[in-house]
Amino acid sequence: MVYAVLIALLLTVSSLGAQQVPNGSFEEWITTEGSGQYKTYEEPAGGWSSGNGAIHIAAGSNPVCEKTTDAHSGSYAAKLVTQKIFGQVASGSLFTGTFQLNLANPAESARRGIPFTEKPTAFTAWYKYAPQQNDSATLYAILSRWDGSKRVAIAEARKKEFSEVQEWTKLTVPFVYYSGEQPDTIAVVFAASAGGEFFKGAEGSTLYVDDVVLVYGSSVQAGDSRTGHTIGDIEEFRNRLGTFSEVVVFDVRGRQVTLVRNTKSIIPDELHPGAYIVQVNSERGLVCRQKILVH
Asked: Which of 79, 152, 181, 255 is buried deepest, with most CB atoms within 10 A?
């Protein structure tokens, strides 16, 4: 029998000198001109990119990221639409980083991340979502560092949206810190089709995003951005849902230790003593994510 001491993950960071994601209001855009059947496209300035670069070698293809005047505030927002390019699903996408099409391995085309050295407590944005069929969107931010041979995750704030969201809605997701190390990079990612990296999704799914802000200087409890629930009061979900669709356990460096599907157990029995991050998912998305100690 494993005895687990549950610890609410409270993160506090000074707001002095707080970094923000550049052009998080999406007011500034860069135009890349097309020619003939290759369409002109736009992307937000300030280190943002998308899969739009693919349309300049795919004649007649539509951009997966567009500037729109349907904004939460200011003049513009980002509109992400899942398209078909080269006959494959191309998720409507926007991310901090660069895009260079790799035809040999398209999944390697996106290089996510820009320089970043602070530790925010939460990730916020405003969004709307119109899924097609049974599609879902993903919105997340990851802090990481390069250890000399590989990139190591330090913290993550992630939301998966399964439902239609017709009005501008504020997203607030606390960062879950896997370690106390200093980041050197932040990757902020929005995708109209969560399975886009694997060319899965529904053509026409549309995600609107605006006003991306990183929160500092206050304590934020790790849990779902809508419910705020933690493992301590998870019995409510057990009674309502019966079985959790997925329980994922990570070590403190962000590496997945185990994944159990369709389970009624929150803490897997096979865990060795140590510190872990436990993420509990239902069929509708994240229920909670919390740090635990196993003795």
From this structure: 79
